[in-house]
Amino acid sequence: MLKACVATGVGVATGGGAYGFLYERHALGLTSATLPVADLPASLEGFTIGLLTDVHRSRWVSAADVDQAVRLLMQVRPQLIVLGGDYVTWGDRAYVEPAAEALGLLEAPHGVFGILGNHDDDHDMPAALARRRVQMLRDARTQITINGEKVELIGVRFWTKRTSDIAALVRGADGFPILLAHDPRRLTEAAALDIPLVLSGHTHGGQVVLPGIGAVAAQKFPVVAGTGRQRQTTVFVSRGVGTVYVPIRINCPPEVAILTLTRAPRISRST
After folding, report:
1. Domain assignment of residue 156, given as a range
2. Residue 2 forms part of a structural domain
3. What is the pLDDT of residues 119-169, one digit of tens each?
């Protein structure tokens, strides 16, 4: 659909497309968001998470672009960092090590954790990141302790979609659960399992957002960018760093995000 948008008049040859190619796709910014989370323990009030996703290191996404994303996130010193997948495009092994090397400079008091996206292979990319002290969660759960509170980080691969498969990862958890899922459509499964928080990417915010039309290529997602909620579950979807299919962004600049958790009331079933 992104290719169709280019073909119908927002391509690199147009003024808007040229702006999106030459400038906006490099106009990386820091998004600060406060996430209202149901049943958030008092000890996690004000806790900060850095989210960096959809790097898509490639001929179109340079080392300088990724280095800038890392610098921006490290400047705000998040207490925990999540990498949301799609570190390269189409599993291109030429960029696996360069992507991992740049992201290996990230550090946070409670660690750096990563998941896989649909463009990542299941071996080389996670291995390269693991060598840089990124704990990869491939359909796995790990527990960390924050201010004396047990927190369960549950990371699923892009291809893990069934509620029963995610439920198996949650089963037996005795801490506060956070689901790390590349695809924001996992909000539906998380809400069914009463998981209070989901962190995602994948959509690129639509990448091309047309006036009066919106993000044509991302209409199938429950949340295209930013914060959303379904039942008791809050999701944050990042626009990400890189581009895919066409190297442009229009009305949708790249971002890294610093997320601050705050307690939200549960929504009554009658609401």
Report:
1. 34-263
2. no
3. 999 999 999 999 999 999 999 999 999 999 999 999 999 999 999 999 999
Instruction: Look up tokens 């600060």; give the residue.
Output: 32
pTM greater than 0.70: yes
Give the dihedral of Cα atoms 73, 76, 80, 82; nearest 10 deg: -20
Query: Is residue 110 in a domain?
Result: yes
Rounded distance between C-alpha atoms, residue 139 and residue 135, angstroms: 12
Asked whether 237 and 197 are in contact (CB, 8 A), the reply is no
Residue 27 falls inside a structural domain: no
Model confidence over 160-186: pLDDT tens digits? 999 999 999 999 999 999 999 999 999
Per the domain annotation, does 70 fall within a domain?
A: yes
Query: Which residue, chain included where needed, has tokens 């960092």?
Result: 81
Backbone region of residue 33 per phi and psi (left: phi > 0; alpha: psi in -120 to 50; beta: other values): beta
Please give the tally of structural domains in the chain: 1
Residue 157's CATH number = 3.60.21.10
Three-class secondary structure of residue 4 per DSSP:
helix
